[in-house]
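It is worth pausing here to work through a concrete case rather than discussing structure prediction in the abstract. The textbook approach is simple: state the sequence, then state the predicted structure, then interpret. We follow exactly that order.
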Amino acid sequence: MPLQALIDDALAQTPPGRCVWVALSGGLDSALLLTLAAEACRRHPRPLYALHVHHGLQAAADGFEVHCRRLCSRLGVPLFVERVEVDLAAGQGLEGAARVARYAAFARRVAPGETLWLGQHRDDQAETFLLAALRGSGVRGLAGMPPARAWRGRALSRPLLVVSRASLEAEAARCGLAWVEDPSNADERLDRNYLRHTVLPGLATRWPHAAAALSRSAALAGEAEGLLGELAELDLERLGGEPARLSAVGLTAFSAARQRLLLRHACARLGLPSPPAARLATLLAQLASRRDAEVRVAWEGVEARVWRGWLYLLAPLPSLPEGWETRWNGEAPLITPLGTCNLGLSRAAAVSGPLLLRPRRGGERLHLASRGSRDLKRLLQELAVPPWERQRLLVAWWGATPVAVLDPVSERWLAVASGWRGESP
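Step two, the predicted structure:
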């Protein structure tokens, strides 16, 4: 299929009237993608914008931006430049840290509901497949880059993923298109560059269609990954359909492989990082713990807890600052270190003086309607409030009397004393 027809088809698959963005580095693939996109949008009117991420990692970076501005000026496409700081101390390596910064820039500029086109091509996919295989990745890693996917409410698409770099070069020559070459692409100390300049050309001397075959294998792995995702979703529905709270007993009824699949799927559904293999094995070994045990297994960006026969997956939350307390008039909003709550608290009888909110200290008792005086610790146990959530609860005091218990994270009153009324949005 001609490249222009490929782009026209990609444009037809985007929601009518929605903006299309092209991530423009200034290199061959993105420069050609923007050129073809501009032509498609002239024939099929659609708002089109280019987005250049200035990483600031090398002296040539300013030259990349200048080239992008010239290209966009010639094509009549508005260009937006995002300057980022790459966190090289984050332990992700240069390429990984740059990718994190780049995607953060995408999220800032591209609005939810809009489409972002990326310029990766078939040879890039072959490199990604080899890198994943050399790292011992499973099906998800071997699937490489998907042609299209939803990302934070936006649509990411790679219209050129089935096209070889040689074909892109031929089309660019036909169009008289100029592009810039990133000097760092020649540094074979970087794994991807070594594959690109040494390994893949060596493979091609014996298997001329090596890149196409590797890319096809990635596509087949992507198909298998999709089927596994469907299986995991069926298993999740069998356990209640709530990825943040899974039955430990239900999980143990599955094979070990399906347990691992389901937990990774649940993390993906929640937008949480997938567990490393060792952490996942540790967590699965804890599923049969005593009901009263408090199990915690953590990895970067995630806490997994097993309690009372349930497995909870959650992002770590900050603790309340030591000694924190605040006076409050009972009217919304209530600002806490864990978020702003649009809640109110009032009493039928007139009262004077503000309420005081502070963390639990132990020994509090609430006088509840029809139940009398209740120890807060036992009350929270009866309400099945997990222990780690109890550490972030706030108690509202009127004078020396506790009158309500608030969960500021879920923004709800857990208990309100007799004669008081908790107000929700």
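Step three, interpretation. The chain has a mean pLDDT of 91. Residues 3-219 form a domain with the Rossmann fold fold (CATH 3.40.50.620).
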